[in-house]
Give the backbone structure.
Amino acid sequence: MRCAAIQLDAAPADVDANLATVERLVEDAVAAGAQTIALPEFFTTGIGFWPELADAAQPVDGKATELLLALARRHEVMIGGSLLIRDTDGDVRNAYLVVTSEGVAGRHDKDLPTMWENAFYIGGHDDGVIDAGGLTVGAAVCWELMRTQTVRRLRGRIDLAMTGSGWWSIPDWWPRAAFRRLEQRNASTAWQAAATFAGYVGAPILHAAHAGTVRCRMPWLPLRYAGRFEGGTMIVAADGTVLGSLTDGEGVVVADISVGRCAPRSAVPERFWLHPRGALQSAVWHYQRVHGRRYYRRHVAVS
């Protein structure tokens, strides 16, 4: 199967602009012969601690879903990607949709929001295994690629993993030498999390990511965040071979893969995290989760 993974440089919280970019890049992927196309996490909005995200969530049958369905039907392709969806219960979730020319094949809600993401959506509980017309797709989003629980729900059960991320860098704060070392490790982890996932689940992987700069304020701190998305869009064969990748900038990666499940090459560690986070990321994970859940209740949830 010829597959594509798309890397976006999204306009913050600008749904219409981002959907126009998605349509253009999907057309580029189709022109290159792609039959299955992965979009990144938050393809409608990008991600940062931006209050505008509270109003950017889409209804499940809104214009973002309509665009994916129109593209899938027009070109008879399968497309997957995640976006903020406000469900009929009033809550917002980070929902990965897989659509085909027949309609929405399935949905996976990211299980645990990462850091400041807690301010804008709540987690889900499904297994992410989607029947897409005889092909079993496993959906996973960003730091789900970091957790053993994701591997356990998909391992040996899927023919193709469709994943996306919006993984941001560690800022260049003082002392700069120390923060730059932390960022080197962070960038390496972002790459490894996607590149090694196929070996854990026993299936090829399409991983779509964001690139470009990120600027926003820091929750509960008198600081501003200025950084970038790590990129790392790639297509990985079931044996772990990276068949194509993109680090910087907007674009499309295309490669031919053998779709189907095989014996996983990597054992599942007896711990929660597949890859070490580091002390800074761990601390930010906890404090921003506390802040984010409070912010979500006050500014995003609809009772």
Notes: The first helix runs from residue 15 to 31. The first strand starts at residue 2 and ends at 7. The two ends are 45 Å apart (CA to CA). The chain has a mean pLDDT of 97.
